[in-house]
Amino acid sequence: MSNKVRLGIIGIGQQGGAYAKFITDGMVPNMVIGAITDTDPAKRELASATYPGVKVYDDYLTMLDSGDVDAVVTCVPHFLHPEMGMETLKRNIHALVEKPAGVYTKQVAELNAFAASKPELSFAIMFNQRNNPLYQRLKEIVDNGEIGNILRTNWIITNWWRPQGYYNSSEWRATWGGEGGGVLVNQAPHQLDLWQWICGVPKSVFAKVSYGFRRDIAVEDEVTALVDYGNGATGTFVTATHDMIGTDRFEILGDQGKIVVEGSKTATVTRLKKPEREISESMGMDDVMRLFTGQLDMDDYRSTEIVEFESVWGAQHAGVLENFAANILDGTPLLAPGSDGIKGVRLANAIHLSSWKGEEVSLDFDEDEFLGLLNDRIREEGKYSERA
Q1: d(Cα 99, Cα 75) in Å, to the nearest integer?
Q2: pTM
């Protein structure tokens, strides 16, 4: 292999087209386009005209067997990610799967197990927000114990507004059989990943989910989930696709500080000089009276830092591509190992399962029960075959 990885792009739609542009614009210096695959003749024709000299295939298996690519990225509907990932790895070709890693944990676990049998190959997932310097810094702060033990987390992420025309644009979109869900599997996987990446994996979840609440779709467009971390700490996650104003606010409360993120751009980090309980127990009635009368100077007990980074559009995606290529070329550690993809899928599955059953469910839920209930919904749609 040369000092550049030849990437095969499976699916040259909006996402695949963006990756191709990042590469040709020089944003991924250790990568070139090796080949492109798409089942749509019009997209193949456009790809041939846009990227002269790049071979374009109508079948991804033919591309994998061509010798034209060292690695691939799977820019296809969610159900296909595990299958394509395994077919790629079977041929000793490195695999970068798009988010989510799949629709249900059973298929993602199969992909992970197969990837584990090929440790010499690079297996990654496109969690580009892990390449966001803001969230990298916040993870450092939490991991270093700078705000103490986590007591509560809250993420309201409702700035995914999508009009009905968006859902009408493709037959597979917003269907159980074609897409596997709505906002949880399409718009919010990055936040589900960041939530557990920074704050830890919860033990259980109770969810209220509305299906076709404000859109003519079968899947979810409104979600409110309450998670239990198992040690008295809780968290909430709220997301929707019908909020035209939209909110993106992420809070992490610790026993020695708090992080508040607005718009995924600016974080206010407040650190207490002592754990909150120590401060509480050290205060007498004089301090309480000063608190009630507004005379207590809270700056005596805390410090505040604003964390903010400039991020060029596309740099986070391009950075994941560059990191993936570097892992292949010289073993640079992956920003987002592919095996991590199952965590967000498991959380989304648990949210769905809780809403379907109307009860709190463990993150260690029965995978066969989930798949059975998913297949019930696919069967009711009558458009797609059930999943195995």
Answers
A1: 9
A2: 0.94
